[in-house]
Amino acid sequence: MAYTEQTALALEERGKLIKSLRRFDMVFFTVCAFVGLDTLGTVASNGPQGFLWLVVLAVVFVLPYALLMAEVGSAFTQEGGPYEWMKMAWGRFLGGIGAILYWVTNPLWVGGSLAFISTDAWRANVFGIGHGTFGDYVFKFVFIWISIGVAIASLRQGKWIPNFGAILRFFTLGFFSITTVIYGIEHGFHGFSAHEISPSRAVFIGLVPVLLFNYVGFELQNGAAEEMEDPQKDVPLSVFRSAVLGVLLYVVPILCILVVLPLKQVTGIGGFIDAVTRVFGVYGGASHALLVVMTLSFVGSLVTSGAVWMIGSDRIQAVAAYDGAFFPFFARFNRRFGTPVRVNVLSGLVSTAFCFVAIAFFKSGADSTFQVVLDIAISTTLLSYILIFPAVLKLRYSHPDVERPYRVPFGEAGIWVGTAIVTLWIVLGSWVAVFPGTIERLIGVDYGPFTDAWGVSRLKFETYTLGTLGVIVLLGVIGYIAGAPTRRQVAGAPPEA
User: Fold this and answer.
1) Which of 57, 61, 85, 83 lies closest to 71 in space, CA to CA?
2) 147-175: string of b/e by CB count within 10 Å (b at 16+)?
3) How many whole angstroms separate alpha carbon 262 and alpha carbon 296?
4) What contacts 24+ positions apart, CB below 8 Å, involve 332-338?
């Protein structure tokens, strides 16, 4: 149903959408979005404490988050879900700012973290690629544009790539976990003591943004809400099923990493790849071939991570455009594919440019300045949730007559408490990402020299961080101004079911 005034352009473009997402597809789509293999090593490198906070946040963040998204996603089922929720709650302008913060993370994430991690894994276990060589550029280019190609394809066919990505996660993490048990039986488990798992404030504060970045994605499927066969019934079930599967896919392999490797050997991406290399020794002469298979599965999982976030977030940005909150040029959905090809291509160009600049001018991404920009760029999604989560509560009061097939339990108290909890987590994670070290000082944690942590001074860090955010918001403001003619052309069509 149309819950707000819509533009003539929105009415035209919505007519190109094709219903194709079934409940099965939605569960696998959300698992693919929710489970990111790129941060497994980072969480594991924090040892038993990292595992503890992973489990704790599954209860105190993932659970209320899933409840909120089940309600709003099944009640408000227009294409571009999160943008529409923000617009109905806060108006088009803030909806447009929230949409660009949500979208821009993804091309920079694909061209930054995902492309570089995939190249490193490929270089280590499949075929050597020199840093900054022609092959390095080609590999990353192909990686980026496979993700974009999946997003461009009709969802009727393209949905099988996220489905395949979910299956790859089950295979990669399941096979690794089983092999770890075999390794433990043969060689003994490293294990950890109760003292090591005792929580500390320093690890908690340091891990918050990473864990929250891991644990988001339930609303992404609503970017394609009008392409779902039955969103009112399927959204709550797909959210809850993917939540359970996703948490298990994080908890089990990270526990296995900690059981197999001493903490000093668990560092960043190596936390997963090194663990795979070590435990696969149980297969003797077949170990190298299986390691190659696992690496291919790992890279494939990262490709599908990028693809599924492009599928959802590009639609959200295109909806903002056809609603008059972004440049109208990017509003168009391709009539043949039913996908926002212009935004898809924009994402690919941004991702490629970001990646190539990092290779050419920032030591193939190893430069401290690049790392600072990348860190804040991929944290903008967290900032968008500061607008998304409270919108669920606001809509309960501003649109009380909209049918809600599912409601957050415990009535008004339930939705107030749930919204407060998840919003506070996101505010904390966002603050730590933008102003690291400040909360540590307030609670008496020794953060150490700022330059040791980031490789740059605090002044330079905040200049790049706030400057990056400023550029993104400015682009959103200019896009909103450019959308004024679209906003003035209001459709006269009645609300539709």
Assistant:
1) 85
2) bbbbbbbebeebbebbbbbbbbbeebbeb
3) 26
4) 332/13, 333/13, 333/16, 333/17, 334/16, 334/152, 335/16, 336/154, 337/152, 337/153, 337/154, 338/16, 338/17, 338/18, 338/154, 338/155, 338/227
**CA dihedral of 243, 248, 249, 253, whole degrees rounded to 10:** 160
Name residues whose C-beta falls within 8 Å of residue 448's C-beta, 6 or more positions apart in sequence.
none
Burial 121-130 (b: 16+ CB within 10 A, else e): bbbbbeeebe
The residue type at 135: G
The string of pLDDT tens digits covering residues 152-164 is 998 888 889 999 9
Kindly tell me the burial class for residue 314, based on how many C-beta atoms sit within 10 Å of its own C-beta (0-12, 13-18, 19 or more): buried
CA nearest to 202, candidates 452, 41, 433, 439: 439
> Shortest CA distance to 476 belongs to which of 5, 4, 107, 103?
103
List the one residue out of 308, 172, 193 whose CA is nearest residue 252: 172
**What CA–CA distance (Å, rounded) separates 275 from 310?**
30
DSSP state for residue 228 in the 8-state scheme: B
The CATH number of 8-488 is: 1.20.1740.10
Residues 33-57 as b/e (b if ≥16 CB within 10 A, e otherwise) read: bbbbbbbbbbbbbbbbbbbbbbeeb
Find where tokens 């972004």 sit: 326
Q: What is the DSSP letter of 128?
A: -
Q: How far apart are CA 395 and CA 18, in angstroms?
A: 27
User: Are the C-beta atoms of 140 and 119 separated by less than 8 Å?
Assistant: yes
The pair of three-digit structure tokens given for residue 58, joined into one six-digit string: 């599954």
Which helix or strand (DSSP H or E) is residue 258 part of?
Answer: helix 231-260
- Tens digit of pLDDT for each residue in 67-126? 999 999 999 999 999 999 999 999 999 999 999 999 999 999 999 889 988 998 898 888
Task: Tell me the C-alpha distance between 250 and 53, whole Å.
Answer: 12
φ, ψ of residue 286 in degrees (nearest 5): -90, 0
Q: Which residues pair with 7 in a beta bridge?
A: 490
**CA separation for the pair 348, 144 (Å, rounded):** 7
SS3 335: coil
CA 171/CA 188 separation, integer angstroms:
24
pTM: 0.92
